[in-house]
């Protein structure tokens, strides 16, 4: 890949980030470390005119939809993890012998 092509690809990713796509999504999508992308953003954000930042075209809409899906997935996995933990605690409690209650002495 030529230097010019690499620079164009970097600028494309920076523009997508400036348009609102999260760095984590871009990182997974392009298989590039998030800190690398953040560095590109720092290096290029001042040199990109606002009119060059893409507005909601189909590609960006799809990336934003992917972000929403990932956020919902993370929330669902957190809830599922909490429920799994609760079930494990209840299973452990069921395995234990019932507590010995003192007999009522009169």
UniProtKB/TrEMBL annotation:
InterPro entries: Homeodomain-like_sf (IPR009057), Transposase_8 (IPR002514). SUPFAM superfamilies: Homeodomain-like. It comes from the Bacteria. One of its GO terms (biological process) is DNA transposition. GO terms for molecular function: DNA binding; transposase activity. The keyword Kinase does not apply. Pfam families: HTH_Tnp_1. Residues 56-86 form a coiled coil. Keywords: Coiled coil. This is Transposase. It comes from Paenibacillus sophorae.
